[in-house]
Amino acid sequence: MLRIIFSFTLYFLVTQCFSQELALDINRYHFTQVKMVDRTAVKNQFKSGTCWIYSTHSFLESELIRMGKGEHDLSEMYIARAGYLKKADIYIHRQGASSFGQGAENHDVINIIAQHGIVPQSVFSGFPEGQDKPVHGEIEAVLKAICDAMIKLPDGRLSPNWRKVFTGALDGYFGTPPSNFMYQGKNYNPQSFAENLGIKAEDYVAYTSFTHHPFYKPFVLEMSDNWSQGQFMNVKIDELVSIVDNAINNGYSVLWATDVSEKSFSAKNGLAINPIQAWEDMDEADKDSLWKTPSPEKIVTQEERQLGYDNLTTTDDHGMHIVGLVKDQKGTEYYVVKNSWGTDVNKSTAGYLYVSKAYFRNKTMSIMLHKNGVPTQLRIKN
In total, how many domains does the chain have? Predict the structure, then answer.
């Protein structure tokens, strides 16, 4: 009897926790949970283009829970600071012929951790005094101005002290990260902390789906934020969907880079859908109804996906974290996506979105996940 009471109490607490995070009813959308993975709280990237870090840290924090390492809050600004130094190195040595902005790709976080380690948020926030959220407009402008001044070579050659000068500016904005720190009663440096967590770059794989490169071979995806020239394995779109489904259903979450400029992507409404009718062809009543009740969606072909990439109507706008799968009352499946825009954009979904598989098929740029989340047949094929 005690076991029954305990089981019921545990179930109640779990379902209560889920209902507090996510509304399973949005207007006349009625969702049923299929599978959710463990995750940490929603954060806010605020006035910074650091979704690549916030989404990857959210993913890694879920990975650490899955791996039995407990719950951790990793420092986003530690990675942002190191990322700016890496971008500056490339930008200067390519004499400005490279992207220097706030963005990057998810693999850049993994690679930075492999080289520089990682630290907890409690050890290094990276916020100037008086701030508790990132604001990077001035930071980007000043850091780029330093690089642009240096590549003009006013003394006829690049100063051997350029990294010291640039690092001084980084320290002024972010602070100096610790070389050693105490955390949960143990002493670490950034590298030993990453090793203790078990985050290994070789465990993570990235996929995309486009026809301008051969399938089942890696290629450098042509995106401005891919300044580090990272490679993505190319698979067919049906296979890309199957990878995400297999991962979620087996307890692995997935990083998602996508286009969020579509009118049918609405954080305010907590939904991303792919309507059959073009947005510009709908009247206001049709547009409004999309957010109120499930409607038929357009399922794009591989060729239609490619057209969106080729004509730049599908671009790499934003990175988020896929943490679950739900069905609406008509049986349509949606991915539960954890965003990094805080919890106030849509209070009912508290920072999450429901993304239909039709939208995912149409607007996905890439995904990244633990290699063991990939179906065996695709692992062999690749």
Answer: 1
What CATH number is given to the structural domain containing 205? 3.90.70.10
Bridge-partner residues for 311, per DSSP? none
Q: Most distant CA pair in the chain: distance in Å?
A: 83
Q: What's this model's pTM, rounded to 2 decimal places?
A: 0.94
SS3 of residue 154 by DSSP: coil
Model pLDDT for residues 336-358, shown as the tens digit of each residue: 999 999 999 988 899 999 999 99
Inform me whether the pLDDT recorded for 17 exceeds 70.
no
Residue 14 lies inside a defined structural domain of this protein: no
**Is 2 domain-assigned?**
no
- Residues 299 and 361 sit within 8 Å (Cβ to Cβ): yes
Give the residue carrying structure tokens 């995750």.
39
Provide the domain limits for residue 185. Answer: 23-381
Q: Are 370 and 357 within 8 A, CB to CB?
A: no
Tens digit of pLDDT for each residue in 165-196?
999 999 999 999 999 999 999 999 999 999 99
Q: Give residue for tokens 């790499």.
A: 316
> Rounded CA gap, 246 and 252, in Å?
8
Q: How far apart are CA 38 and CA 194, in angstroms?
A: 20
CA-atom Rg of the chain in angstroms? 22
